[in-house]
Amino acid sequence: MYIIENNLEVVEYENLLLPISIKIRELIQYKNKRALCHWHDDIEIIKILSGSMNFYINGEIFHLIKDDILIVNSKQIHYGYEYNHDDCKFICLMVNPSVLKINKAMYQEYVIPIIENNGLLAWCLKNNEGKQLDRILFALIDWQEKSCRAKEWKLLSLVYDLWYQIYNLIDNDKNLNLIKDDTFDDVNIFKQMVIFIYQNYKKAIILQDIAKSGNVGKSKCYELFKRYVNKTPNDFVNLYRLEKSKILLKNEDLSITEVALECGFNSGSYYAELFKKYNGCTPRNFRKYKK
184-289 falls under which CATH superfamily? Predict the structure, then answer.
């Protein structure tokens, strides 16, 4: 999980001059073939190259197979995970909306109505509906790998072409799968509780604390975590602590117990037990493997 700033995930871009990121990834690169729950300002585009996976967005689950394209709108809670133990190879493109701000009037006319529309969570393109996007995605990968000077202008032109295609898909295709969000308030409450965990994971946290951060009761808190991440609040806290601990394990000056306490666990033994349960190895062996 990346660091959270201003209540959003910080996305790492390959090019310091242009806030976009495009990579070919495999689900097997993620522990248990499952990404952590997250959200960010960026529009995210997933293109399945081989295999399949499920993709969760604000309580909706998309089953994606080869050649499918999924466009995830800005600030939506989402993550991908395995389907039927299948692996999946996919393109992941992240585009920060600031890239589209060169002309303020056009940004207001053609970007804001989409990225700030709570009823537009995602668009799923199947049966080769996204052929024009295919062309742009592969061109972006090609140009990202080039070492020529000023390639950012070419990348920028491709991103603008991409947005033109996306905008017209939304505006013109009445059969496009648009997800309507009827639970926007619940999503915001859930985000507030997750942010509380991210900001306080080093401290002792109980269910009542998490619920209070979202101004809801304990039963509502439990319900929202089960709905949006299919985990209990306590499990979510512990999994986040475990992910943060992996960063500290790289520092060999810290003992395993010190790592555990720094990440909010009350003992080294309990930390080691949970770490092995979810990662298949002890913290000590993980440290040796990552040397």
Answer: Homeodomain-like (1.10.10.60)
